[in-house]
Amino acid sequence: MSTAIVPFRPNGPAADQEAPHRFIQFGPITMNIRQCSQKANALRIPGGTGLQDGDADDNSGIQWPHDAANNSGQQQGPAGIQMQHLGPQEPQQDPALVNVGMVVWQSGFVLAELLLRRPPLGSWPGVRVLELGAGTGITGIALALAGARVMLTDLPHILPLTRENVTANLRPIHAAMVAEHRWGSDATPLLQLCGGYPDIIAAADCIYETQFHGALLSTLQQCMGSHSQAFFSYRNRTAKEQTFAATAAAHGFAVETVPTEQLAEDYQTGGGCGLL
């Protein structure tokens, strides 16, 4: 288990968080990502995703294509995608997390671009990926489009937006699921849905609040097998992000630095980003 630190320039692509949609391209991969800015969110119910009633239904996700005929309680989703209901874990919402995960953060762009250009296992088809704090889903969707089997997870109030973007960008041939997971809770259901320990765990901009570091590391320890690799990207805003590396090291994670020249040119100087 390793941790890496990478700098990136904070004013590169993916900076517009007010647009209702972001059209993002990584080589041959093109995505249309819906986002809900804090301004738009403030016009609706506090703590909501900014989605209108009826935009999303239950907590469901796209099934692995070869598993679609083997599960009960299915629903037919848009474009023929099979949907599976995943029940909520905890109804209470932490106030500090009400307005997060609704827009494309630069860390998600940086992480997706890096992983697509430099696949840790050489290529993406068949690689099992678990994304924590998926938000709009930019990283997980990009990897699913590249052929990975992706489980995108987040809190229940964010999942309608995640699921909308998954449905809009993926087709039945792609392998992706959307599921609720609260860091620090029992990760057994996720591992069962993933079919075992994931090969790659990805998370973008998830460590800016130190109060959640312990819970996040608990989830990592539960979800990482001996072969698993975890990649966490973040922009250095305050010292809070930097303390995560030390905390991770204390929990048995090795910390290393990914050379900045491995990043897209726009993100090679200034700011800060970490990959674990």
3D structure, described in words:
By secondary structure, the chain is α/β, with parallel strands linked by helices. About 25% of the residues lie in helices and about 20% in strands. The protein has seven helices and 13 strands. It has helices spanning about 40, 105-115, 140-145, 160-170, 190-195, 215-225, 240-250; strands spanning about 1-5, 20-25, 30-35, 60, 75, 80-85, 130, 150-155, 175-180, 200-205, 230-235, 255, 275. The strands form four sheets. It has a five-stranded parallel beta sheet with strand order 9-8-7-10-11, sandwiched between helices. Strand 7 (about 130), helix 3 and strand 8 form a beta-alpha-beta unit. Helix 2 (about 105-115) packs parallel to helix 3. The protein is globular. The N and C termini lie close together (about 10 Å).
Number of helices: 7
Helix content: 10-25%
The radius of gyration is 17 Å
Summed over residues and divided by their number, the pLDDT gives a mean of: 75
- The total strand number stands at 13
Describe the protein's topology.
Elements (H helix, E strand, L loop, with lengths): L1 E5 L14 E6 L2 E6 L3 H5 L17 E3 L11 E3 L5 E4 L20 H12 L10 E4 L6 H8 L3 E6 L4 H11 L5 E6 L7 H7 L5 E5 L8 H11 L5 E5 L5 H12 L3 E4 L15 E3 L1
Parallel strand pairs: 1-12, 7-8, 7-10, 8-9, 10-11
Antiparallel strand pairs: 1-13, 2-3, 4-6, 5-6
